[in-house]
Amino acid sequence: MTIDIGTVLGPYKVTHMIGSGGMGRVYKARDTRLERDVAIKVLKEVPYRANDKHDQFQREAKAIAALSHPNILSVFDIGDYFGCHYVVTELLEGETLRSRLETVARIPWHEATKLCALIADGLASAHAKGIVHCDLKPENIFLLADGRLKILDFGLARSSHETVGHPHSQGTLDYMSPEQVQGEPVGPESDLFTLGIVLYEMITGTRPFQRANPIKTIYAILHQAPEALTNLLEGIPTELQEVVFHQLEKDPQHRFHSASDCAEALRNLVPRLHRPWNESQHPRVAYRKPEFELDLSFLEMPEVRYAQSGDVNIAYQVVGDGPIDLVFVMGWVSHLEYFWRDRHFARFLYRLAGFSRLIVFDKRGTGLSDRVPLDRLPTMEQRMDDVRAVMEAAGSQRAALCGVSEGGPLCALFAATYPEKTLGIVMVGTYAKRIWAPDYPWAPTAEQRARFFEFMRKEWGGPVGIEDRAPSMAHDAEFRRWWATYLRMGASPNAAVALTQMNAEIDVRHVLPNISAPTLVIHRTGDMCLKVEEGRYVAERIPQATLLELPGVDHLPFVGNQDEILDPIESFVGSLQFDTEPDLRIATCLAIRGNLPQALFASNVMRFGGMSMDPNLALFPGPGRAIQCAQELIATQSDIACAVHCGALNPQTGKGEVRDQTNRLVQLTPDGVIWASQSACDLVAGFGFELSQVASPFEIPVKLVKPQFRPI
């Protein structure tokens, strides 16, 4: 039945027709009560003829409306219009799986597997309420522009083990289970068989039982095994084929026991089997998702939780339930709640959460985390401690890290220091050093930074830095208001300046070669905040790094073309493997020379979070604490010499050149003096040490540390 534009169905005013299909027509309408857009599906004209038909529709519609799951289309209302039923649902922006397959023909197996795991999640929720779909197919699977997925059209759904009737009248033949084509009672196992067909088609581009005519198709469904995936395509893991064939068992009792078991089996395949991503695996020409407009008025804010890091509470959120944990590290200042108040940022984060278990947090001193005195703003070591505390609180043993801007150096240092906790890192619009140097000529000079600090003091409260960070949105009034509020809520003026001054001291150049984790560096070629040469510098010095240069002038990744950034991140994260063990990690060594009592040395090392390795040598998680320990030791006994150095160490054996180099350095260090290598000094931003260059015969640059103890 056709409905005229402008027709009012209760509180719903029809605005235009979206499309039509075998079950009826779909219209876009406005819900005048709640001021939101909805979709209305008007079913084919079927006169009631009897009250039992009407009652059956009511029962089935209510059962489907009771399904509440992120991967199932939400039903808001039902009604009838001149004898025709209609269903009111949420309005989706994106495309069906059928449309996707018509565009790309096949979907890479690791992506197809993740999509089918989400479908299985939705089916599990329906099955738990006694609902079987009975007509699962690519036309009834909707892929949203933000990476989420919805199962559509439970129009043929019925209670578990209800007889379906004549096989040609229910469902779609190519996607039917053996019990369906025989008209037998169906249960959840029938949907799992159909899901196997869908997965098979996504991977190969063909339907496993489709034949020249319906009789041959039915015979194939009942009696023939599908062609092996490994015969049709190269690079298909045998474990994947086993899972698909387990779904396609003819006997329902031989399939997965539940959709949840199926989802778990599918998810376990990707991190174990998918090989590491490289640029050649990422298609240069791909479909483009339509821009997704996130309706913030109905967005449920993720729950804010707190992790204890020392005596400071760190605010964090967990969003999504993907197979790999992804810790998102935002640069500069942050505020968790305001992440979600801009539709661009919210869309970006929801897309990340669509393929991972996303963990976001506010650095100490910013946002919803504890505010701290200006002289206790977080050092790089404390920031790493905060990341570890958040991961522990979120139940994450090992994660991928995604750092934006200043978050990139933190991710790099964390990956080098804690490789056993790092699956891989993504750095977007990042840098290695924030002050100009002859061998790093792209960063601003100290004078330029000083002028920016003064500008911040005067203008904080407004959209500071928007022209460099989001030039394409710099004149958008709504975005300017959000950016100004986001910064103002994220940090006070003095804290913002102090944090920015501290960030200017960051230098991780010596760290980069010690990163063993797979790394993806993404940089826009016209970035007006950080030059693309800085991204190239970082990528060239990390052993397993891939550089992806993209067009654009915006520094913030959620401004401009998000999908050009999100698509490769999704491919990269999906490729990471859990079974790799790190060979090297960056470590800090403190060595002493002199007659210091062993007990005194050991107790001070323990006090500052280190671990004694030899009578005169200890390991620390970072150089800041090692230098603090050295200052305390010198203050206690002034005739000893102390040396601090950062370098590579084998985490399995505890051996590495860093130990030998530190022992050699301390032999050259004068009595009563602390010498720290350049690699150590580059990582102590925020500690307030007084450092001065010295001439030494050591093979790498060394600085003198003024022996003044500063409490932790």
**Which class do the helix and strand fractions yield?**
alpha+beta
**Number of DSSP strand runs:** 26
The average pLDDT score comes to 86
CATH superfamily of the largest domain: Alpha/Beta hydrolase fold, catalytic domain
Look at the structure and give the CATH class of the largest domain: Alpha Beta
Task: State the end-to-end CA separation.
Answer: 74 Å
**Order of strands across the biggest sheet?**
12-13-15-14-16-17-18-19
Summarize the structure in words.
By secondary structure, this protein is of the alpha+beta class. The chain has 4 domains: 8-90, Phosphorylase Kinase, domain 1 (2-Layer Sandwich); 94-274, Transferase(Phosphotransferase) domain 1 (Transferase(Phosphotransferase), domain 1, Orthogonal Bundle), CATH 1.10.510.10; 301-433 and 508-575, Rossmann fold; 585-705, Alpha-Beta Plaits (2-Layer Sandwich), CATH 3.30.70.1230. It is built from 23 helices and 26 strands. The strands form 5 sheets. It has an 8-stranded mixed sheet, sandwiched between helices. Helix 3 packs antiparallel against helix 5, helix 3 runs antiparallel to helix 9 (259-273) and helix 14 runs antiparallel to helix 17 (493-504). The radius of gyration is 30 Å and the shape is elongated. The termini are far apart. Mean pLDDT is 86; it is low at 160-169 and 274-298.
